[in-house]
Design goal:
With 175 residues, the protein is of the alpha/beta class. Helices cover 35% and strands 21% of the residues. The protein has a 6-stranded mixed sheet with strand order 1-8-7-4-5-6, covered by helices on one side. Strands 2-3 form a two-stranded antiparallel ribbon.
Length: 175
């Protein structure tokens, strides 16, 4: 009896942590100005959101130990290659990790786009990050258009990047 209860508790915990996370979630930030940040990148440079005004931004929060993050890494890399010359910027924010682990992850899974670590946890707090991966899509005017929880695919990225780019701009899609 005790083993059955332990198994059920572990199963519920596993589902709560890793269950059906591939969904668009609402966030109180959607429709509002994206919180300003400056991220120190792994290459030593810095990037600020204010520098990216006029561009569509995909802001992805990830961790090296996160299996869904590993699952979405190829889609992020392929999509970045597709959009990098189209007024779309990808930024990766590593959370709850060590520099060494994060750097190894980037070497293994790619990440030619700007990526850095949030050691003071300021960016993740401002964006209300509760788990990884979580991704925000920010339009050229600096307004958050969508938030997506769970691993991204190229199709999901295309959909939300085009929504963020808005109807008044030429679509960044290559289709």
């Amino acid at each position: 009896g005790v083993l059955v209860i332990i198994f059920l508790v572990l199963a519920l915990l596993g589902y709560a942590l890793f269950g059906d996370r591939e969904t668009a979630k609402t966030s109180p930030l959607v429709g509002k100005d994206a919180p300003e940040f400056t991220l120190k990148l792994f290459d030593g440079k810095r990037v600020s959101l204010s520098e990216l005004k006029g561009k569509t931004v995909l802001l992805n929060f990830w961790a090296s130990w996160c299996m869904p993050c590993r699952q979405e890494a190829p889609a992020l890399e392929q999509s970045w290659l597709k959009y990098k010359d189209k007024n779309v910027v990808f930024i990766g924010v590593n959370v709850w990790d060590e520099n060494r682990s994060a750097s190894s992850y980037i070497e293994k899974f790619g990440g030619g786009y700007p990526q850095g670590i949030d050691p003071e946890e300021e960016i993740q707090v401002d964006y209300g990050i509760g788990g990884v991966p979580e991704t925000y899509f920010i339009g050229p005017s600096g307004i958050i258009t969508d938030k997506y929880d769970g691993p991204l695919t190229e199709e999901i990225i295309d959909y939300y990047v085009n929504r963020a780019a808005g109807p008044e701009r030429d679509s960044p899609s290559t289709n």
